[in-house]
Every structure is written in C-alpha cells, then in structure tokens.
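Technical appendix A lists one of the benchmark inputs used to test multi-chain prediction within the project. The record comprises three sequence entries:
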Amino acid sequence: MNKRRSMLCAGLAAVVTGVLLHSPAVQANGPAKIGFVYVSPIGDAGWTYQHDLGRKEMMKNLGDKVETTFVESVPEGADAERVIREMAASGHDLIFATSFGYMNYVERVAKQFPNVRFMHATGYKSGPNFRNYNARFYEGRYLTGVIAGEMSKSNILGYVAAFPIPEVLQGINAFAMGARSVNPNAQVRVIWVNSWYDPGKEREAAQALIAQGADVITHHTDSTAVVQAAQDQGVYAVAYHSDMSKYGKDAHLTATTHHWGPYYTEVVEKMLNKEGMGESIWGGFKEGFVELAPINPVVPKPVQDKVAELKEKIAKGEFHPFTGPILDQDGKEIVPAGKTLTDEELSKMNFYVQGVNSKLPR
Amino acid sequence: MLRLEQRSCPSQIMRWLSPALAVGLTVLTGVVMLALLGKDPWRGFEVFFINPVKSTYALSELMLKATPLALCAAGLAIGFRANVWNIGAEGQFIVGAICATVVALYFGEYPFWTLALMVIAAMAGGAAWAAIPAWLKTRFNANEILVSLMLVYVANLMVSWLVFGPLRDPGGLNFPQTVMFEDTALLPVLIQGTRLNLVLVFVVVVLIAAYILMYRTHLGFRMRVAGESAKAARYSGVNAKSMVWLGMLISGACAGLAGMAEVAGPMGQLTDKVSSGYGFAAIIVAFVGRLHPLGIAFASLVMALFFIGGEQAQQYLALPGSISMVFQGMLLFYLLACDVLIRYRVAFGNLSVAKQVRKGALS
Amino acid sequence: MSLGLFESILFATIVAGTPLMLVALGELVTEKSGMLNLGAEGLMSIGAVAAFAASYTFESTVLGILAAMVAAMLLSMVFAFITINLMANQVATGLAVAIFGVGLSAFLGKPFEAKVLQAVPGYALPLLSEIPLLGPALFKQQWLVYVSWITLAAVAWFLGKTRAGLALKAVGESPQSAHAVGLPVIRIRYLAVMFGGAMAGLGGAFISLFHTPMWNEGMIAGKGWIALALVVFSTWRPWRVMLGAYLFGGVMISQLFFQSSSVQVEIPSQFLSALPYLATIVVLVLISSNAKMIRLNSPASLGKPFLKENS
C-alpha cells in the first residue's frame, strides 16, 4: 500500500515537473499588465482624455493579451513616486507616465525596478528601461494657423495659454507663422491664465480676447471653455487635444488632436514580443501622433486643399514649420533662410516670433 | 426623545474612544458604499485601509505623507488655541520651500551646514510670510483669515514666476523647475529603501516643543487663556497683539519647515507644483487632533491613511480619485459628531420640571 | 456683440462677480446669525453638479437652479446639525463640508462630464439697456445677474429693516440674550445656515449653467474660498459684498484685457494674476483701519456654539 502510494506521488511529481519545465517561461499566468498614470481627470476632452483613448485603442488592438489599470489626477509632486512605484511593485510590466512633472520620479523608480518598462511623456530623460515620447503638436498648430489666418477678418487671433513652457511656445509660434504665411497682417494675442485647467478663467480670457477684436481663438489649456465661449460669441475657434466640435458646432473650425493609440499598441507589442524598447521618439504627422480634426465646411475648399497639401509635405519631411527666415518679436533674425530649427533648439524654445503681439513673461 | 446633556466633567474614556468610533463608522459607511457601487466590500476594506499599512515601505510612505500635515498642524494648533486664525499655512509652506531652495541652490554643498541653513531659512521665510497678516491685523485690524488666504494665491504665483524665471534650471529645457539639489541639500533617509527621511525627527521635536510650550510654560497658559475668552485674557494681562504675532509666526515657521522638508525630501527640487494642499489639510488635522500634539500625531496618520487608501482604491478598485475626498469628509463628520460625546451624554426622555430644577440646583 | 473696451470690461466684471456675490450674501446671512460655515466651496460644487444634472436631464434651467439650491441646502443642513445640535467646532465642520462636497460632486458628476448645454442667452432690459456706456454692460446680462441684484437688495432690506432681520442679528450678537427674550435661536440659526447653503448652491448653478455651461470636477476652482474672504472683506455689510465681488472680478478681468491688449509691457503674467488678491488685501486694510466699523459689524458670537444650559 505505502509503496503504491509513494509511487503514485512520485509519478504525480514527475508529471507536474514535466509540465512546468515545458511551459513558456514568461507571461505564463495571463495577460500583461499595463499601467497608466494620469495628471488630471480623464473627463471628456483634453490631454488625459486623449491618452485614455490611446489606452482603449491599444486594449482593443491587443485583446486579452493585456489588461490595464490607471490612476487619475496624480499630482506632479511627491505622491507621484508612490503611485508609480506601487504600479511597478504590483506586477505591472509597462507603465506610461503621461506628464512632464513625473520625470524625476520615473527615473528613480525605473532604477529600482529594472525589469519593468517605463514610458514617460514629454520629458527629456531616459535610461536602460525608461524612454520618453512626445508629439510634434506644432505641426498641427501650423496648419490650424493657416486656417485661422484665412478665416480671420479682423486679423486678430486670440490664444489662451496656460504656462510658458517650450511646448506651448512652439504651439503659439507655429500658429502665428502659419497664419502669417497666408495673411501677413495677422497678429496673435496671448493671455496666460497660469493654470492648465480653469474653465471659468479660460472663458473670461477668451471673452477678453474677443472683446478686443479676435475673431478666431485657440487655446493651450485643458477644458472646452474657449470653444464654448467662441460659440456663444459668434466667432471661430480652433481646439486643442481633442475634437471639440460638439461644444461649438458653428465655431469649431478644426482641432489639433493627439493620437496615442497606435504608438501605445506598438510599444506594448514590442514588450510582448520581448523586443528591445527602441529609441525615445518625437513623432508628428508622419507617425500619426498628431492629426487634424475634420475641418468645418465653412472653411473654403481651396484652403482645405492647401492644408491637406501642407500636411502631406510635413508628413513626408519636405516641409518643416520652423524653417527660416524666422524673426523674433524685435525683428532680430533667429533662423536664417533655408535653415530649420533643430529638435534641441525647439525643445528649449523661449522666444516669440514676429506677429505675436504680447510680451513673453520672463 | 433624545437629548444632549452636559456631563459634569469631560469624559476621559470618550476622548480616546471617539476617534476610534469615528474611524469605525467611516469604515462601515465606506464598505456599505463600496458594496452599493458594486465592488467587493472586503476587497474595498483591504485596499483602502489595510494596504497602506501592510509593509515597511507602505508604513514609511504613510509616515512620509503624514509628516507635513503634522508639522503644519502643530503650528496651526498653537495659533488656533490663541484664537489666531491662520488659514494661509499653504502659502507659508510655499515660501518656506522657496527660501530653502534658494539656500540649496547658492549654498548647497556643505555637509550639515547646508541643511541647517535651509531649515533656518525656511522657518524664517514661513514666519515672514505669516508676519504680513499678523502686522496687518495688529496695525490695521485687517482680518487675518482673509489676508492669509489671499496670500496663498500670491505665494503660488510667486513660485510660478520664480521657477519660470530666476530660479529656473538652465539645463532643464525651459521647464518650470530648478536643478536637482545636491545630496548635501537633501534630507538623509532614515530607513534604506524607503523615502522616510529626517523630517520624522523634525516632527517629533516640533510636537514635543509644542506640547511643552502650550502645557508647561506660562506663555502657553496665557495663550490658551487668551483663546478661551477675550475678557479673561485682558484680566490676566495678556497682550492681544503679541498673541497674534506669536500665533502667526509660530504657525508660519512650522509650515515653512514642512515646505523645506518637501523640497529637500521627496521632491529634491523646487517646481511650480510644490503646493499640494498640506496647509489646508493641516487645518483639519489640527482640529481632529483637538489642537493637542498627541492628537495631531494620530490625526495626521489617519488623514494620510485616507489619502493613500484613496490612491490604492483608484488603482485596485477602479474607483474615481474623488472617493478619497468623500471618505475624508465623512471621517471628519463622524469624528466631530462623536467628539460631542466627550462633553455631553445622550439622555432619553424629557425631564420633568421638578427634575430640571433639581438638576439646575445641583450642577 | 461689439461693445467698447470699457463696456466689455464692465460686462465681464459683473459676470465674474455674480457667483461670488451670491455665495457671499448667503454666507453673510449665515455669519450674521453667529455661524461660521467655511464649506462654501463644497456647497457650490454640489450646487453646480446638481444644477447641470437636473438642467440637462429635464431640459430646464429653472429646474436646474432649484435642484442646486435644494442640494446645497441639504448639505448645509448636515453642517447645521453637527454644529448646532452636536455643538461641534464650526471651523472644522465647515472644512469637512468643503472637502466632502467637492469630492461628492466629482463622484456624482462623472456621467455628466461629456454633456453639453446651451448657454442661457442674455436678456436685455428694455429702456435701461439703451443707456449709453452703462446700458449694454449692465442691462444685457443673463437673468440670474438681475436676480443677484434683487437678492442683494432683499438681504440688505431684510437685515436692516425687518424684525426678522433684527432677530437674526440679535442671535448673532448674543444667542444667550436672544434666547432669554424668547427668540428661537436654534431655528433661526438653522434657517440662516440653510439660506447660506441655498445661495452657495445658486452660485454654483450660475457657474455650471450660465457662466461655463458644462460640468467637470474642480470647475469651481476656489471661488467658494474667495467668496468667504469677501464676506470678511465686506465687514458684514451687504452692499460691500457687491463692492468686493465686483472689485475682485474687475481686477481679474482687467488684467486679462491688459495682457491681450496691444499695449506691450513687460510685467510677468503671474504678477498680473496676483493683482486681484493684492487689491482685495489693500482695500480690506483701508476699510478695516477704521476700527469702529469692524467692531460694529462682526457678529460677536461668530463661530461659538450656543449652549442652552449656559443661559
């Protein structure tokens, strides 16, 4: 009896060991876990909303190979490190940290968790298991500037902006240059609301711009208030981050929209296939990171065609919005004719181009 | 009919039981809420209340989160006791952080001395920012609630201007941040592998100092008297103006110290996101802690627990971030309600006139 | 609309100041009864989300406003119960209301975040809106603005000219004495708190229905705290609430106009953004340095619980 039982146990042990030895070495226990750290509530439009759309698209593409978790409204301070670390420590394989202020915390946690992959949006640091990614929003801004320049009758374009970080300045400058490329009299007036999200203040800023003659306004803030203000006051608006046409169906000309889905899918697939992380990336129209929302039919067809043509050129690399000659506000030449700003120069931008009629806060 | 009847003397048992009761009620309500939302209540309980304390790292994070709350609250409690309403601790926190940063940037490479100077600068900065409402109150009778609150917004805008301008890291691609501090300007970590740093020692020192000041010195006695009754204060020779100055300066210095610990600790630099609401949360901690250092220590841990629990709930239960605020508010309501039982007991029925008279004669 | 610069600024100032004024008027009444309710931010948030939800669901602005007032009033009754019946500390309870209200509104408002509402159109008062310079700025506002002026007048009249107002102020000065002469202190305080709550809800409704017709968590963005500060600024006199609200709003709007004007001056935008707060402090100092004014107006029992046994 005992002998038979012990033989049975040995047999069982053999079978189990055999099964274990032959099972795939990694991800044996179900889908990969992908974590997302968001700086603001997802809401229904704006920076985080687009990232979340990307997350959902990635999930759709990869089905049950992945499962995701996300945490919203994580402040860019000491709390962020805890959240990121918690994700890393709880079995996540890949973490997307979607705001600049997480950079140093991602760096620290990445060092502590070398087997987890970290992707940081809009930063400039990277490491062995840690890359950054960003989008050339200015490409979209240039094209929307063209539309704005064409559609404006007062030649005053309004810009409601949050903080003078390089990305925002790239947007303002590209918008101004795009507008002036078709309308040399266009001027851009900027109001700094010192907040990424404050619908009341954004609306008041929009109305101040409109009251002073702006008939096309745009924004680099996170709510739909500017588009709604334009709709209420009967002027035009160009949205940012998301297509906001439902908030201003007459006012909304187009929007510079962010698209992270295909990139997120690609990054996760690389991880599933156990490939290397590749390079940090700054993608634009070419990579599909940036898109223009459908253009309002009120924009004349020739303008729409021109924009489509320019977009093609940018995507193919034949045209760069920041091509010289570029003069700054004081008329000094910053970029000579024929040259373009390098990525490094772009990421340090701290000037206004000619045509922006406000003083840069220093 | 339920009535509240004043006890002849405050119940010591309830003093300790009340917070436990409040936490229990909150947990109960929370679990019921989670069940109503379709989440597994046990899992909810575990994620919200157990996770933040289940490992050394978790505990260290809990304490790290609680320290700025305790620091600010200790100072605020002293002020509140003296009837000085400093609602602007958040602004003093920011200014303390700024002053500490300036020291770290220009004087940042000296072991021990850099940190010591940062502490002094931060406390001086916070006190100076609090001196504005103190001066406006004593000189012009301007209400300190409003002035200190307005100065919070001003402080925030000031730090924004500084990190976009004079203090900006030249190698930081024009983002609003300073350079990372040198190691000599960072608070040393107490437990390897965690982020809990020397600030814990600061907290203990400050809480002890606050206790000694308020309960073991004549000055503290006078401050408490001044707070209880303006008349009694005058009779005992307390100078109302100096109470205002003391209350504001002390709470400003503590808040400034907390700001220093934030930039010299988990952040390691100054950014425009340095303000995280500790100054306001500390007001609640001060009250929940019944303006007593020991109570404050406990209350800051509880607030931190709720905060971190909320983060956990987001990640593991897919609940929105606002759940944390809902629970914090609930805890406060229950605590304030339960605290009543310290001074009052629940009685039933209406007292007959005779009984009322007798009670009046006896008490 | 094409208004001149001055009219545009005035118009926008009134819009910006209206929610502040509504909330501050309510809190003023509350504080006149001796109750200090710091929960305005939470009450406004609850009001805003209730207003948007009801208005969207039932396609009625009026229902939205009623929902806002009722919802905020209910939350303020929680405050009243805890501070009046349970005699808890008012500052802490008010803060709890603020936190809880903001969190709860964010929580309950999630399904409404993607929804759009039509803005309420302005209503031009006949004749008055023809007045040159002031007419279009003052009298082409949305109707809740006119209601805010009526409310201001009503509150001023109530406090200054009615027996009920006198009773309220008596309760605020000395609840013991008021109790001794037979005034229902508890009931008066409850009603005062409820009025404050309803007004805060109304202010929140203005934000989410009239000012920026949307709901998103955090959209109150600190206006509740500003309103509380304005009550202090007003030294508890209703007309000064209007002064404070429009002063604050006016400086805020002016700096926006200044930033976007063709005048180019190198003033950091952060300094311009700080102006409304600094201006409020300066004016408060000027008002307060007349010490007699302050003493006469702040309710003596503000923030202290009413203990029946002590009277």
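The longest strand of chain B covers residues 2-6. The radius of gyration of chain B is 23 Å. Comparable benchmark entries are summarised in Table A2.
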